[in-house]
Amino acid sequence: MDFALALRGPVDDAVLSALHARAFASSAESVTPWSERLARHSLTWITATDPAGKLIGFVNVIGDGGQHAVLLDTVVDPAYQGQGLGRALVAAAADAARDHGCEWLHVDFEASRARFYLDACGFRTTAAGLLRLT
Question: Do residues 57 and 76 make contact, with C-beta atoms less than 8 angstroms apart?
């Protein structure tokens, strides 16, 4: 597969919202203010584009200002899934977090994504808690 990864690559809110809608089979009726959120909250992010420059993958990395970083919003266009792009995005995110001085990279995922995060990306399970706020 031919793709390019970019650290803090340009993000178009409508394009990234549409990618998320395709990948998660949800409605793309609203546009998420990704650029604003990334500028305000992210340690870094990684974009993936095809040879024509189309956004085909994305991962966001937030940090606590210290040793911990967290992966959020890992997404790969359905047409490119299963070809190693997601693994490349996560590896690049881990490298970037390490370069920022982080020692730990956390990820929260649904059970259906366990093989990807645990087997393909090398995460290990830990005990964690979750509190629904809405």
Answer: yes
- Using alpha carbons only, give the angle 4, 97, 113 rounded to the nearest 5 degrees: 70
Give the pLDDT confidence of 49-61 residue by residue, as tens digits: 999 999 999 999 9
DSSP string covering 96-111, please?
A: HHHHTT-SEEEE---G
Considering the entire predicted model, what is its pTM? 0.93
How far apart (Å, rounded) are the C-alpha atoms in residues 67 and 62? 11
Query: Would you tell me the crossing angle of helices 13-23 and 34-41 to the nearest 10 degrees?
Result: 100
- Pick the closest to residue 54 from 98, 15, 106, 112 (CA basis): 15
Q: State both tokens at 45.
A: 């992010």
